[in-house]
């Protein structure tokens, strides 16, 4: 976001997908071949009209993103889907397809991981040297990122305060990673369980996932960026890494483009679900910024430790997580303990007047039938064999191809 936009004036959405081999269902580290098939020569970024394609840290993940800020969320699901269809058509030439959800259910990251070897490879190699990126928290993670602008410090204060108190609830809406290496992990959001500790070697980078209670650019630099710079310095002797790039909290401030990027959303089975979820999150944030539920002072008062405790329950139990902290729930106008599913139903009912009928149908389906993780586990039943896992996730690949909800 090169120019400064006001709150909720424009948006940036990013969706990450795995490439898998059709014959054996293993991750296919061939994003470079995909980009070459599209472009004629290899380039790390492709401008495809409204949507851009790019590589990620690992060679089997492709990122699709709005090609710059957009004010139009309503048509985004169709635009992303058009690009998915085009990519799958290209991938047929190399017996590969896109797979949704936040984690491959059978991938062995120690054996199957290949880092991107082309542009920016020196950055990825340094990351690998520091953290050893052959792990689920690095090489088996597909997420949705929501980028929201702020114009100045005053708007940053409002937006950061609202995002901080909403982050703990996100896994209760969109967890989609219940299976790793052929096993049900016991966490509905396994991606975030790994996210918490994948940079444990330098804890300043992720912190407690929930950002610190800082509400100005000066305080953010002093509290978050400066400790990161200091901690990374012994490892980054050539000054390759950027502090904006290094900050790995669940929401990160990008003062280089005056935006906050939310990173806790697991990618879903299709863009219809992804965009509806993004719209619901954005509408609730609008309500918080406009003090529909509580004051700015009330929002700013919450410490990261208290919010992290609630987030942890959501990571494990998803929509079934019981929120006991009534003081927290009172921020949203809820007076007694409730499950995250019930909290989201309450929030949805508070903002649905601003959501289109098509997106309402999608959100209501998710709120009724549960997170994608819960629907995946229901489809698997008691049969956690490799064959059944492949069958269920093949259905999910079909949902991506047809832009249909899973379990519908």
If you had to describe this structure to a student in words, what would you say it looks like?
- The chain is α+β, with helices and mostly antiparallel strands.
- Helix content is 45%, strand content 14%.
- It is built from 18 helices and twelve strands.
- Strands 1, 2, 3, 4, 5, 6, 9 and 10 form an eight-stranded antiparallel beta sheet that branches.
- Helix 6 packs across helix 11 (271-289).
- The protein is globular and about 55 Å long.
- The model has no long low-confidence stretch (mean pLDDT 90).
Low-confidence stretches: none
Overall number of strands: 12
Estimate the global geometry from the Cα principal axes.
globular
> What is the mean predicted local confidence, pLDDT?
90
Order of helices and strands: EHEEEHEHHHEHHEEHHHEEHHHEHEHHHH
DSSP helix count?
18
Radius of gyration: 20 Å
Tell me the span between the first and last alpha carbons. Answer: 37 Å
Q: What kind of assembly state do the chains in view correspond to?
A: single chain
Structure classification: alpha+beta
The main sheet comes to: 8 strands, antiparallel
Task: Summarize the amount of helix as a percent range.
Answer: 40-55%
Proportion in β-strands: 5-15%
């Amino acid at each position: 976001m090169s120019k400064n936009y006001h709150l909720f004036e424009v948006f940036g959405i990013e969706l990450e997908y795995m490439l898998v081999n059709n014959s054996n269902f293993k991750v296919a580290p061939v994003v470079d071949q995909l980009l070459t098939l599209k472009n004629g020569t290899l380039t790390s970024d492709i401008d495809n009209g409204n949507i851009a394609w790019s590589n990620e840290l690992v060679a089997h993940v492709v990122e699709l993103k709005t090609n710059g800020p957009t004010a139009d969320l309503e048509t985004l699901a169709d635009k992303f889907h058009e690009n998915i269809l085009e990519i799958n058509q290209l991938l047929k030439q190399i017996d590969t397809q896109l797979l949704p959800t936040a984690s491959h259910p059978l991938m062995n990251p120690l054996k199957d991981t290949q880092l991107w070897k082309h542009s920016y490879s020196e950055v990825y190699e340094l990351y690998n040297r520091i953290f050893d990126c052959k792990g689920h928290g690095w090489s088996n993670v597909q997420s949705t990122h929501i980028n929201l602008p702020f114009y100045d410090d005053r708007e940053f204060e409002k937006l950061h305060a609202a995002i901080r108190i909403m982050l703990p609830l996100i896994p209760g809406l969109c967890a989609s990673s219940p299976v790793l290496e052929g096993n049900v992990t016991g966490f509905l959001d396994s991606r975030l369980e790994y996210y918490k500790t994948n940079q444990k070697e330098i804890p300043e980078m992720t912190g407690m996932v929930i950002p610190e209670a800082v509400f100005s650019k000066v305080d953010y630099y002093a509290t978050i960026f400066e400790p990161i710079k200091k901690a990374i310095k012994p490892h980054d002797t050539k000054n390759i890494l950027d502090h904006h790039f290094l900050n790995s909290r669940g929401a990160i401030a990008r003062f280089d483009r005056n935006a906050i990027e939310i990173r806790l959303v697991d990618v879903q089975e299709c863009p219809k679900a992804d965009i509806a979820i993004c719209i619901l999150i954005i509408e609730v944030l609008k309500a918080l910024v406009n003090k529909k539920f509580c004051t700015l002072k009330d929002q700013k008062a919450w410490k990261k430790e208290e919010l992290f405790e609630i987030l942890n329950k959501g990571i494990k139990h998803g929509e079934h997580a019981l929120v006991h902290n009534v003081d927290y729930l009172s921020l949203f106008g809820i007076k007694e303990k409730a499950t995250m599913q019930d909290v989201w139903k309450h929030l949805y009912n508070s903002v649905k007047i601003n959501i289109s009928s098509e997106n309402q149908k999608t959100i209501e389906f998710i709120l009724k039938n549960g997170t994608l993780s819960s629907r995946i586990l229901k489809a698997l039943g008691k049969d956690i064999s490799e064959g059944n896992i492949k069958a269920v996730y093949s259905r999910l690949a079909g949902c991506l191809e047809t832009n249909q909800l899973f379990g519908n």
